Amino acid sequence: MIRGGLDALVCDLDGVVYRGESPVEGSVEAIAHLRGQGVRLLFCTNNSRSTVDQYITKLTGLGIPVDASEILTSAVVTAEELRRRNFAGRTAIVVGGEGIRDALSSVCIGVKDEPEVTAADLVVVGWTPDFTYDEMRRAAGAVLAGATLVATNDDAAFPATGGKLWPGAGAILASIERATGKHAEVMGKPHPPMMDAAALRLEGAERIAVVGDRAETDLAGGTARGWTTILTLSGVTDRKQAGRIEPPPDFIVERLAELVQ
């Protein structure tokens, strides 16, 4: 498909490799083929709920053996960027899953989950299905008291099992931003922290493509880096919507399997 082939592929997960707990048809075989051709793979996801180890378990269970070095989550990027900015040793109130807590703890940022703790240096927002009004109130109060507001990503929705779209981290973040009048700095795709981290992990590769189901994150991030962009229609974007994307992706495929057919 791509003249001269690929050195590396930045591959989204939700809506590309799987939807919910089920693999997208042909994705497992496509990934095995790409590996066999010597293509370096980086699974790059804005979903911050799970830890890297949990992603390894999930992908392995789907038939995709993977190393920790091949997984980049927005939670990991957020922690790396906060460490770079000398937030190690500070405290954070987290709205999100285990992935954020694990990543922040790895860079010595103390996560304050005690309900009575209503002030911190940071408020870090990701996705969780257990978001409550009390969490929103606690996070907003900390921001109004001076905490720095950071988001792992601001995806409005994500593709779940059965072709459904579920509200994403961006929907949760919007409530906190609305309550405080503050805007978060977003670390995930397509923003520089995530794209820079992906480029660093693929250092030495010259022909890089990014494949994803979302123009405003996957494709925009790839375009900013000068990478080949591939839109798959197995996630949140359908054929009609794909025709309206500006700038248009370099390639449009129904699913990941078409890359190797």
Shape descriptor = globular
CATH class of the largest domain: Alpha Beta
Alpha carbon gap, first and last residue:
9 Å
Lateral strand order in the biggest sheet: 5-4-1-13-14-15
Written as H for each helix and E for each strand, in order along the chain, the element string is: EEEHEHEHEHEEHEEEHEHEHEHE
**The CATH homology group name of the largest domain:** HAD superfamily/HAD-like
Mean pLDDT over the residues: 95
Largest sheet: 6 strands, parallel
- What Rg is obtained from the alpha carbons, in whole angstroms? 18 Å
CATH architecture of the largest domain: 3-Layer(aba) Sandwich
- Count of individual helical segments: 9
Helix content: 25-40%
Describe the 3D structure:
- This protein folds into two domains: about 10-45 and about 190-260, HAD superfamily/HAD-like (Rossmann fold, 3-Layer(aba) Sandwich), CATH 3.40.50.1000; about 75-185, Rossmann fold (3-Layer(aba) Sandwich).
- Helices cover about 35% and strands about 20% of the residues.
- It is built from nine helices and 15 strands.
- The strands form four sheets. Strands 5-4-1-13-14-15 form a six-stranded parallel β-sheet, with helices on both faces. A five-stranded parallel β-sheet has the order 7-6-8-9-12, with helices on both faces. Strands 2-3 form a two-stranded antiparallel sheet.
- Helix 3 packs parallel to helix 4 and helix 5 crosses helix 6 (about 170-180).
- The longest helix is centred in the middle third of the chain and has 12 residues, at about 135-145.
- It is globular.
- The protein starts with 7 loop residues before the first strand and ends in an 8-residue tail after the last strand.
- The model has no long low-confidence stretch (mean pLDDT about 95).
